[in-house]
Design goal:
It is a single chain. The chain is built from one helix and twelve strands. With about 160 residues, it is mainly beta. It comes from Helicobacter mehlei.
Length: about 160
């Protein structure tokens, strides 16, 4: 990788809303970080091209690991709960949210479903990569906040849940 390539990557990174990116090639590892200090552990997100897999990490908090009264955090996505047990699973990245693995398949989850930790609740497509969004705890789906195949921003409320 040439210096000009790295400079071009830096310029492109500066123009995005992404705050942290780690890029690994055969003999090169680059880390781009806009934040001077982090209060939240980053959540890994896979992004790839034809040659490489690039985890892009975003500072979000885990739906089941964030204590909203103390502010203690872990690693995934949280919203603004209306009660101690209600919460939201947020989009960890910019992309397109899908309720189902393919247009003809049934949705991953529906309102009223009780799901286990690690169960997929949907997919966010980013840069032609399908990123599964998983529940970080056992929970009940109260509502799906985003229509299928809708563009979402980082932090968009995807699913309203009740922690079990």
């Amino acid at each position: 990788m040439k210096t000009a390539d790295i400079q071009q990557l830096m310029a492109s990174f500066d123009k995005t809303n992404i705050s942290y990116m780690k890029l690994k090639l055969e003999h090169v590892e680059l880390v781009f970080d806009k934040a001077s200090s982090r209060k939240v552990a980053p959540a890994p997100v896979e992004v790839a091209s034809n040659v490489l897999h690039t985890p892009i990490q975003s500072p979000t908090a885990t739906a089941c690991a964030l204590n909203t009264t103390t502010g203690a955090t872990s690693t995934h996505t949280l919203g603004n709960p209306t009660s101690a047990k209600e919460d939201y699973i947020l989009s960890p990245m910019v992309g397109t949210f899908y309720h189902r693995p393919s247009p003809s398949a049934s949705p991953y989850v529906s309102p009223g479903d009780t799901i286990k930790k690690g169960q997929v609740i949907g997919i966010v497509e980013a840069m032609k990569i399908m990123n599964e969004i998983e529940a970080e705890c056992d929970c009940k789906i109260l509502s799906i906040e985003v229509e299928d195949a809708t563009a979402v921003e980082y932090g968009t409320q995807l699913v309203k849940i009740e922690k079990l």
